[in-house]
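Exercise: predict the fold of this chain.
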Amino acid sequence: MLVLFYKTYLVSDSIQKDVSAFYQRRAYQYAWFSDNKLTTAALNFNQQRENYISDFADSSLYNAQIDTLLSNAQVNTAQFLANKQNRQTLELLLTTTFFKYTDKAFTGVVKDPIDLNWFIPRKKKSYQAIRYFGVWPGGAYPRTRQSVLWFVERKAKTIPRHRKKGRVGMH
């Protein structure tokens, strides 16, 4: 059953290994069904899956068949459970999707900031200006406020030269 499912749904090798080991540890018992009904874990996971798709605009976890089968399982539980093929298909779809979800959710998704429309051009920092404002590991210079005001009035076009060694600002 698993091999046929993997071929039909084009499941990656890494997911195949995880799913096979998962069911082997469970002695091939259902994970998403218990006491002749769908577990709350299945419904909770489906909600997490939908939230992930929505929050991250990632349709790779979307599967219309999962939505249809879950809906059928909730509306006509007895009829759905009587159909072994649908029950097994939903079980394996949820499990493979769960492993895909955990891989994405816990290892992270790398995207280009430009694709996310989060690109904010950064201004280059003037390290001389930072030094001038007194941002030193040892603390600030005494007249930082006056120096900042003077610097703002000059519109940051020039950086004043030190008049005396070790002193900064207007003297």
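Check your answer against the key: The chain has eight helices and two strands.
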